[in-house]
């Protein structure tokens, strides 16, 4: 199986999008927790642990996998948390 196909299958275990779940927002698979909520927590200075305490239906491996799969999420966090020059 090609790497891209394998990554797509694995990513489907991490996040999902369904028009009937949270208005079609990207959510953590098997939950109704939007991925944007994680981004908001992290850009607000919270830790992954704090996010997981607030949203116990999300598994740590899902958060870590999403961040691994999503370099743009990491770039967004770096940009948001950058100190003004």
From TrEMBL:
Q: Name one Pfam family in it.
A: DUF433
- Output the superkingdom of the source species: Bacteria
Concerning Gene3D superfamilies, the annotation shows: Winged helix-like DNA-binding domain superfamily/Winged helix DNA-binding domain (1.10.10.10)
- InterPro entries annotated for this entry? DUF433 (IPR007367), Homeodomain-like_sf (IPR009057), WH-like_DNA-bd_sf (IPR036388)
**Protein name listed in UniProt:** DUF433 domain-containing protein
Organism annotation? Caldilineaceae bacterium SB0664_bin_27
Its taxonomic placement starts with: Bacteria, Bacillati, Chloroflexota, Caldilineae, Caldilineales
């Amino acid at each position: 199986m090609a790497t891209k196909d394998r990554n797509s299958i694995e990513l489907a275990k991490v996040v999902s999008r369904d028009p009937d779940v949270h208005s079609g927002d990207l959510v953590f698979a098997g939950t109704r927790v939007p991925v944007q909520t994680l981004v908001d927590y992290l850009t607000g200075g919270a830790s992954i642990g704090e996010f997981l305490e607030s949203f116990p239906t999300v598994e740590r491996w899902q958060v870590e996998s999403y961040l691994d799969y999503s370099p743009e999420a990491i770039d967004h966090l770096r940009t948001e948390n950058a100190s003004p020059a």
